[in-house]
Amino acid sequence: MNPVVIVKSNCDMKPMDIVKNIATANGGQVIETTIGNIKAPAMLCNVKTKYYENQIVLFPCDLDCKAIPSDILEMCEAFIYYFDSENRSFLTEIDELITFVKNNNIELGLLITKQLCDEPSTGITYKELKSICKIVFDVIELNQKSDDEDDEERNEQVHEYVEIIRALHNNIWSNVKYPSNLETENSLDDTSDSEWSLGVEEQLDAFDKLLTNIQNFKTLSANLPREQVLDEAEKLAAMFSTIMNED
User: How far apart are CA 59 and CA 49, in angstroms?
Assistant: First the structure.
C-alpha cells in the first residue's frame, strides 16, 4: 500500500494543478491512478534518493477535511495545503488544520503559497504564520509568477516546487525500499567489517544524535528567520548524508 499525500487549496490554485506540478517537478512520468473506496483520481509519484526509493500517491482533494473518507486518511502520511498569503483570514483556519494533522497522525505537513508578505499590513508574514503552526507545518514559498506569462516562463514555474520535492524526499515513508545491500539481514551478514566504518552501536548513537537535533530544530525554528531555518535544515541534511554515506 502506497502512502497518500493529501493536497488541498483554499484559493484559485486547484489541487490537481498543484499535484501535476509536483509530479512534473519530481522529474517522473505523471501516472494517473485512483485511491480509496470512492476511487478518487490521484497521481503516482516515484521518490528516489541516494539512499532509498519508494512510491507515493498524490491525492488532489476538493473535499472538506471532515468529509475525507477514513480509508484514505488511514493511508495518509503527508498533507499539503496551498493558501493565499494576501488573505489574512487564513490565519483563523490554521488551528483546524493543525487539529486535522494531529488527529490523523500525519507525519509531514506543508503550508505552501506563492510568496509571503513582508508586513502584516499587506498580508501574512512568515514570522506570524510560523508562530501559529509551530512544528506541525513547514512553510514553503513557491514564488510563482502571474498567469499571463508564456509557456516557457510557466515551465520555470514548475521548478519553484523544488522545496516541496526536497521535503518529500527527506520524509521517511512507511513503504521505503532500501538498496539491496541494506534490505535483508543476510546482506548485512555478508558485509565485511572493512566495508562499514560504523558499527551497529555507533550507527545507533549517530542516528540518536541526529533525531535529537531534528527535534531541537523543530522547536527552535518557530522563532528563526527563514534564511536561518534553511541554513539549519541544510546542516541536518548534511549530517544525515554523512551517516548514510559512511563506508
Answer: 22
Residue in the block written with cell 502520511: 77
pTM of the model as a whole: 0.71
Is residue 67 scored above 80 in pLDDT?
yes
Average pLDDT, integer, range 138-160: 62
For residue 178, what pLDDT is reported?
64
Cα–Cα nearest to 3, from 60, 71, 77? 77
CA distance 238 to 6: 28
CA distances from 174 to 53, 168, 183 (A): 11, 13, 14
Is 17:88 a contact under the CB 8 Å cutoff? no
Average pLDDT of span 14-31: 87
Helix count and strand count (H, E) for the chain: 10, 7
Q: In what order do the strands lie in the sheet with 40-48?
A: 31-35, 40-48, 53-60, 4-9, 76-82, 108-113, 138-141
Residue 192 cell numbers, joined: 565485511
Distance of alpha carbon 168 from alpha carbon 54, whole angstroms: 11
Query: Grid coordinates representing 113?
Result: 503559497
